[in-house]
Amino acid sequence: MERSGPTEEDMMNALDANPVLAGPAGPFGVFFVVVLVLVLTGFVVVIVGIIRNSRRIRQSGHDPLTLQSDLAVRALNSDLLSPRRSTEERLAELQRLHRDGTITAEELAAARARILGGDPGR
After folding, report:
1. Separation between Cα atoms, residue 116 and residue 30, nearest integer Å
2. Tell me: the pLDDT tens digits for 63-72?
3. Which residue of 27, 94, 113, 114 has the smallest Cβ count within 10 Å?
4. Domain-embedded: residue 24
């Protein structure tokens, strides 16, 4: 039986003659394949991480698409980013709490000492 068309040897010769279709031979080919495998592995790791984080966020009852915005709004609405109150304001707040009976005289003295950076026994 005779085969019609190019033989395997003809195909290999054609690959060797055309540099665009050259096989991954030599150090550059090996380097290229290693880099390709590393890049693809990186993509897979990132995608798996995103999926795992998204599932964990959903399981905790939050929306993964709005989580960062929710946290930003919460931080902006809190006292976390507000300027620190002055010593006078903090001491006035302590006096008000003591006058209203919310804190005892001992708690007032300890809090005053903490604010003023002094010793509670002074």
Report:
1. 69
2. 989 999 998 8
3. 27
4. yes
